[in-house]
Fold this protein.
Amino acid sequence: MTSGRDALRRRAKPLWKLWRYVSQHPLWSAIIAAAVVAAGGALLAKGGGDSADLPLAGFGPSRPVYWCKSPTSCDGADHVVFNSYANAPNYGDERAFVDAKPATIETSGGFQDVLDVEPGETIVVRLYVDNAAWGARLGRRDGMAKGTEARAAIPLEPGTHHDLFAFITAQNARPKTVWDGVTLTSDQPTILRYEFDSARWTTNHLPEELPVSDALMEEGTPIGSWALDGHFGNAFTDSGILTFRVRVEAAEPVSS
């Protein structure tokens, strides 16, 4: 990957983080959206990268965006679609739904879209998941996502720039799959190791966190608002958080 593309990625990620903070104000959101699309809209589309099956760092695919006029008035989609509110009252821009923080930060918050890491650190990766189907238009039954699954992809090769991706899929969603990425950077070559049995899922409807299958890193694993059964409701109270841990290790020197 070229250094120019790396630079574009590092500049683009903070823009999406800034958008989360100002997206409560539609006028400012519109201004920022126009600037980002003009400067780097290609970063939001699928394609490219070091691996042919992974998108560029950032979210995708391109899809309609929905807005909340106020925290209690959000006009969603007329179909099942994940993470498509630009200013969700409990999150901000849902399309940027993957971020990370050092595991040493045990308080809430501290998550970033671009994170500097060092060998020996453990990183918590977070996915926010929400079904933006509009309940007032579809009702609960027709707005229910079915066969909902989460999948994550961690690069295996050593380097100083790692793009981790997560994918949310549902059988009746349009588009069927949405994705986002988080970037981990280091001063020296590092390699990332998924911490087995670390994935957890939680929603407002669950009394405690549920362990998530390590199939998360392979073919994907079911998630849901009330159980790990793929059924996902279409209200903000049905949204959920998935976390998992990644260890950062120093890459072994390449022998000449």
Notes: The chain has a mean pLDDT of 83. The longest strand covers residues 177-194. The helical segments are 3-22, 26-40, 135-142.
